[in-house]
Amino acid sequence: MAQQYPEWIWQNGAIKPWREATTHVMSHALHYGSSVFEGIRSYATPDGAAIFRLTDHLKRLYQSAKIYDMVLPYSLDELATACREVIRKNGLTAAYLRPVAYRGLGGFGLSAETPIDVAVAAWPMGPYLGPEALEQGITACVSSWQRFAPNTIPAGAKAGGNYLSGQLIAREARRLGFGEGIALANTGLLSEGAGENLFLVFDGVLHTTPASASILTGITRDTLKTLAREDGIEVIERDLPREYLYLADEVLMCGTAAEVTPIRAIDGKQVGNGTAGRVTRRLQELYFGLFDGRTNDQWGWLEPV
Ligand code: PMP
Asked: How many CB atoms are closer than 10 A to CB 34?
């Protein structure tokens, strides 16, 4: 089926038709991966469409840009407005938002001071890891590709070039028939999924890998940590060896796109009893409860469109 695109996109300060949002083939980002971006979801809530943790996502966009000396020509408020406009103009409520800032046309050297172009797209998106993923869980494998070492490419920046690593991990997993790939860090310890953070459950306690394990410290990861602690579930950030994936009572992946996805088997070994466990179900309830009103948003995470 041909890909369907929404009608409108925001680019460099103006809303324009999707097909007109083009960029030059000699743009720096296309050759060198010099873009920074975000993935954000909006949800239909009882109080209308709301963007989940929009401000936190945009703050991370500016942090990613800072690491690469990219000065965005728009303020955070201007980009927040652009995000809202793109959702409204396309008549969307539940959607995935993609702000991207990139080095455009203006020099071919690696350190060229190019203009920074910015765009925001939005489109409807269901569960990222497949229609049954949230209910039934997915299978995963440990990738033969490691994450980049912390002194090579900073995993804490959500930069385009990082996703060459993610593509290798995700494509290998799918080629081998798994739902997603999990990577080890250069230390040999667990890092994260191709585009998701990891939580393991042992005896009702959540364990997640630390920033030093070459992960993107996800906003969903932070959300789940907060919701769990509020609910009396202990959360520990720690180094985790690979075999803990096979020994955990429950394993889940989380991210803006993946939301809260149970993993039912890893490397062909069943996780727990092979279905979403008690803690995973509780986290799903609390997480999705934010959007249907069952979980009180005491943090002001839902930002109205
Ligand atoms: N790790 C990687 C590599 C990712 O691409 C993502 C998705 N942005 C995440 C983790 C999860 O981050 P978040 O919860 O902020 O979407």
From this structure: 23
